[in-house]
Write a structure and sequence with these properties.
Radius of gyration: 26 Å
Shape: globular
Strand content: 5-15%
Largest sheet: 6 strands, mixed
Oligomer: single chain
Number of helices: 27
């Protein structure tokens, strides 16, 4: 019996020629397609065959055109898949304004453009990558001729295009001191960054790869899950100043090792080791590099190994989102800058940390000024560093210069399309402005890039509450309730995770479980204004207005001053009309406006 097709192709009969051409290309690389070539627009009724095909497919591939968005049957197909929370991949065959009928179902879903006259080969590869990430397995015919590692397809421009993708897995930390996890993670990200400049190989998203940290799977399974033909893995052992790194490159299709090596040295040798690893991967895959790519492959942000180590430590602390950890990150970044005054990435990290400190904890003008100054210095030393533009975007955001902040973050995304933090900051800009549709789309993009970034699910939940998207609220909440217990077992000192968990428990009427989580968060981060603010949110969710106001007063006393966010936060809805609540924020706004600037 023939297994059901994994992809259901939805289209309008008016586009049949273009659709069949694309369908042929998809089938040629092994996509299992179901397509009604009788053209469903011409049918008066849906057939049982169409409904069964829809329900058994993994993905609805929606070919978007002006004709398709006005098709009743296309709308029915999208509705059916959306109701059962199935996967939809919109592929635009022409610039199209989506009708209100489809707008809700497609909101927040990333699409691919496959316009006539464009780079169809690149667009086809984008479609295939998206399908694979949604669980569709490709089974292309065995190639004839050269081995898979050297086969290249020619694009429309004649430029070689890599047939197979490469994934770099998180290096295992086998050091005696597990506190050096930041180091092995940093080396993984550095290798991914180096290889990302190469045009002849498709590189799996670093966020997708990093989700496999500590997952014990065989290489063929990992390759299948990520849609990667080649997989790089390894281990890092660091003891004091000594480093040993083992790396191997495996063909996931055959489970055959193509190359492997072990590198030993001191911390000062780390840059040479990184360059050797990247170059030997290039050699093993027989890739041809342009002159610019050769230069990029050997680019060093710093030549000071201690500064580099401090920078990696700072990055590890930065997004734990407690005042204490952000202050630790600042100390580490500042020391890295002291060791290498031209270290652009350290300036960018430090700028971001000061921006977070100002935004989340204490509206002290000197923190804002420092964030802006450091972002300018980062760009002065490297004007192509995505992280520097993201930091500048944060410094403009906290100054209320939303137009400049948006432009800076979009530049960061242009330089690094996988900069999840830039998307997240853009989402916060739109949320603060009350532009919830835009915030929703951006938060969904963050989750697509980095599904393990738990904080964004809380942001998405609040956004969905404003939009009245109850399914979205429930989905984000359930994701957090499912993942946070495991995260907290592995990271019991994560105060922010404890308070988010408390809020989600309160949201499901589990007060007896929520309150101990809140207590734990405060014990881990005593006097932390953000923790106190979130405790106020928790009590508000529980209907305890008096306790919420007490916690809010404490948060403001300790330095919480983020009025704009509090205005939009649905967790505080219980207090909106409370006279004391209104007075608290009126006084806070008055004091902030009266505060003199600090040079």
């Amino acid at each position: 019996m023939t297994p059901p097709a994994e992809v259901f192709l939805s289209y309008s009969r008016h586009d049949q020629d273009r659709v069949l051409e694309l369908a042929g290309k998809l089938r040629a690389v092994g996509v299992s397609l179901w397509i009604d070539q009788g053209a469903i627009d011409a049918a008066t009724l849906w057939s049982e065959q169409i409904v069964n095909a829809l329900e058994s497919a993994k993905v609805l591939l929606l070919l978007v055109t002006e004709a398709a968005v006005h098709s009743d049957n296309v709308a029915k197909e999208v509705m059916l898949v959306s109701e059962r929370k199935g996967h939809i991949l919109p592929v635009y065959l022409e610039p199209t304004v989506v009708t209100p009928t489809l707008k809700y179902q497609l909101a927040g879903i990333q699409h691919v453009e496959y316009f006539q006259g464009g780079d169809s080969e690149a667009s086809l590869k984008a479609i295939l990558r998206s399908l694979e990430r949604l669980g569709v397995k490709l089974a292309p015919p065995e190639p004839k001729g050269p081995p898979p590692s050297t086969v290249r397809a020619e694009g429309r421009t004649g430029k070689p295009i890599a047939r197979d993708a490469l994934a770099v897995l998180p290096f295992d930390n086998i050091s005696p001191d597990q506190e050096t996890d930041y180091f092995s993670s940093g080396l993984t990200e550095e290798l991914i960054a180096r290889l990302s400049v190469l045009s002849e190989i498709d590189l799996i998203s670093r966020w997708a790869s990093m989700q496999l940290k500590d997952r014990k799977q065989d290489i063929p399974s990992i390759g299948s899950e990520l849609g990667a033909r080649y997989v790089v893995g390894g281990s890092v052992r660091r003891f004091q100043d000594s480093v040993r790194i083992t790396v191997q490159l495996v063909d996931a299709g055959t489970n055959r090792q193509l190359w492997g090596n072990t590198y030993k040295g001191k911390l000062d040798d780390i840059f040479d080791i990184q360059e050797q690893v990247a170059q030997q991967i290039v050699d093993a895959l027989k890739l041809k590099l342009s002159f610019k790519e050769k230069i990029s492959l050997t680019k060093r942000q710093t030549v000071n190994a201690q500064a580099y180590d401090l920078y990696l430590r700072g990055q590890d602390y930065l997004y734990r989102f407690t005042k204490r950890n952000i202050e630790r990150a600042i100390q580490l970044f500042e020391k890295a800058i002291e060791l290498d005054p031209r270290y652009a990435a350290a300036y960018a990290g430090c700028s971001n940390a000061y921006g977070q400190l100002y935004w989340l904890f204490e509206r002290n003008q000197k923190y804002h000024d420092r964030a802006q100054e450091l972002s300018f210095k980062a760009l002065m030393y490297d004007n192509n560093l995505a992280e520097a533009y993201a930091a500048m975007g944060m410094s403009y955001f906290i100054a209320g210069k939303f137009e400049e902040a948006t432009a800076s973050n979009r530049k960061a995304i242009e330089l690094d399309p996988e900069d999840a933090i830039a998307y997240w900051t853009l989402g916060r800009i739109h949320f603060t402005k009350g532009e919830f549709e835009q915030a929703y789309d951006l938060y969904r993009r963050v989750i697509e890039l980095n599904p393990g970034f738990l904080s964004v699910y809380a942001d998405l939940k609040m956004t969905c509450e404003h939009l009245g998207r109850h399914e979205g609220v429930e989905s984000a909440r359930n994701t957090l309730l499912e993942r946070l217990p495991t995260h907290l077992l592995q990271n019991p000192d994560d105060a922010r995770a404890h308070i988010i968990h408390a809020l989600m428990l309160a949201d499901t009427n589990r007060k007896d479980e929520a309150l101990p989580e809140c207590t734990q968060a405060l014990e881990l981060s005593p006097g932390d204004p953000l923790m106190l603010y979130n405790c106020a949110c928790l009590y508000s969710r529980l209907g305890e207005a008096d306790r919420a106001l007490v916690a809010l007063r404490q948060a403001i006393t300790e330095g919480y001053a983020n009025i704009e966010w509090a205005k939009q936060d649905p967790d505080l809805n219980l207090l909106r009309d409370n006279p004391e609540f209104l007075t608290l924020f009126e006084n806070l706004a008055r004091n902030r406006n009266a505060q003199p600037a600090v040079d």
